[in-house]
């Protein structure tokens, strides 16, 4: 069916028959001389052996081509297998708590296979930690997994996809990795809009009043304060893109769009809380920003 669908585009599109693992060596070779966008959407996490994928990722170090990854990682399935492997079946959520997939969560997955998928045996300490709830185990695992991806990419971000807003356990995690700042900024805007659409449909579809949870609201004063802190703490003048990337590290990824960051910076320039290298309130992404000298003096005096 896929081959028939792409037949009109056969001059530049090819359907590779085989498993993901079987295809990876071809991708590794292609990444040496071609830009690669790797969209990985497996049914579960089998076949996502970290070392084999990393060989594709690491082509960015040895060539001028670019490798970007958008991966659907079913971290809940992985952790259910991990708990089964360490004989902690009682900690696996019921089907009421987490979507049941065709893959049996109590299937006997060898520890070596789990380690190969995770890129290390750190999952073992997380799975056996009785002080962590199931969703806390997922977060700890993802923190470690992202750190390993940062060995190949400059920026790695994740986004939890849930069926319902109140669910603690996501259906899956979208992991995006890139070495270019524009990639992470663009992905933030797309995911931010998707997040807002989801929240709006969940709480305001047929509601008389706005029922959006407080944690989804981003206060404009809060953003301006965070921007001033970023510029103040920087050892050198910073640009708008640098400020946005710093906001991501402070927990604002998927919470605020680039245009909203730029608008907040513009307000701070008008209020003379910030000063631009051009001396104007109308700036571009190359213009650097610093704390207004007069404003600093006022703060010291008062």
Describe the structure.
The protein has 302 residues and is an alpha+beta fold. It has 2 domains: 1-179, no CATH class; 219-302, Arc Repressor Mutant, subunit A (Orthogonal Bundle). Helix content is 47%, strand content 11%. It is built from 13 helices and 6 strands. Strands 1-2-4-3 form a 4-stranded mixed β-sheet, with helices on both faces. The protein has a two-stranded antiparallel sheet with strand order 5-6. The longest helix is centred in the middle third of the chain and has 23 residues, at 181-203. Residues 296-302 have low confidence and may be disordered.
Descriptive keywords:
single chain; 302 residues; alpha+beta; Arc Repressor Mutant, subunit A; four-stranded mixed sheet; two-stranded antiparallel ribbon; 13 helices; globular
Radius of gyration: 23 Å
Strands ordered across the widest β-sheet: 1-2-4-3
What order do the SSEs take from the amino end to the carboxyl end, as H and E?
A: HHEHHEHHHHEEHHHHEEH
Query: Structural class, from helix and strand content?
Result: alpha+beta
Number of strands: 6
Q: What helical percentage do the residues reach?
A: 40-55%
Oligomeric assembly:
single chain
Shape: globular
Furnish the topology, listing elements before pairings.
Layout: H1 2-6, H2 20-30, E1 36-40, H3 50-57, H4 59-62, E2 67-73, H5 75-85, H6 111-118, H7 122-127, H8 134-149, E3 155-161, E4 172-178, H9 181-203, H10 220-233, H11 240-252, H12 258-270, E5 274-276, E6 289-291, H13 293-301
Parallel strand pairs: 1-2
Antiparallel strand pairs: 2-4, 3-4, 5-6
Helix pairs in contact: 2-3, 10-12, 11-12
């Amino acid at each position: 069916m896929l081959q028939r669908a792409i037949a009109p585009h056969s001059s530049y599109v090819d359907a590779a028959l085989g498993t993901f693992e079987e295809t990876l060596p071809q991708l590794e070779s292609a990444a040496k001389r071609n830009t690669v966008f790797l969209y990985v959407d497996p049914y579960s996490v089998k076949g996502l052996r970290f070392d084999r994928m990393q060989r594709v990722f690491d082509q960015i170090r040895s060539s001028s081509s670019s490798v970007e990854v958008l991966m659907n990682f079913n971290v809940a399935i992985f952790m259910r297998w991990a708990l089964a492997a360490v004989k902690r079946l009682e900690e696996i959520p019921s089907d009421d708590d987490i979507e049941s997939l065709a893959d049996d969560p109590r299937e006997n997955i060898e520890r070596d296979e789990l380690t190969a998928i995770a890129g290390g045996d750190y999952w073992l300490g997380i799975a056996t930690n009785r002080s962590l709830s199931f969703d806390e185990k997922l977060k700890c695992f993802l923190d470690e997994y992202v750190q390993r991806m940062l060995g190949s990419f400059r920026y790695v971000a994740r986004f939890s996809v849930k069926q319902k807003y109140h669910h603690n356990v996501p259906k899956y995690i979208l992991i995006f990795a890139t070495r270019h700042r524009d990639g992470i900024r663009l992905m933030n805007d797309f995911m931010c809009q998707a997040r807002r659409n989801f929240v709006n449909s969940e709480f305001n579809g047929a509601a008389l009043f706005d029922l959006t949870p407080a944690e989804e609201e981003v206060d404009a004063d809060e953003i301006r304060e965070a921007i001033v802190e970023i510029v103040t703490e920087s050892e050198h003048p910073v640009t708008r893109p640098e400020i946005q990337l710093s906001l991501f590290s402070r927990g604002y990824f998927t919470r605020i769009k680039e245009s909203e960051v730029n608008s907040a910076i513009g307000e701070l320039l008008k209020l003379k809380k910030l000063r631009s290298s051009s001396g104007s309130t109308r700036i571009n992404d190359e213009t650097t920003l610093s704390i207004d000298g007069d404003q600093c003096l006022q703060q010291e005096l008062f």
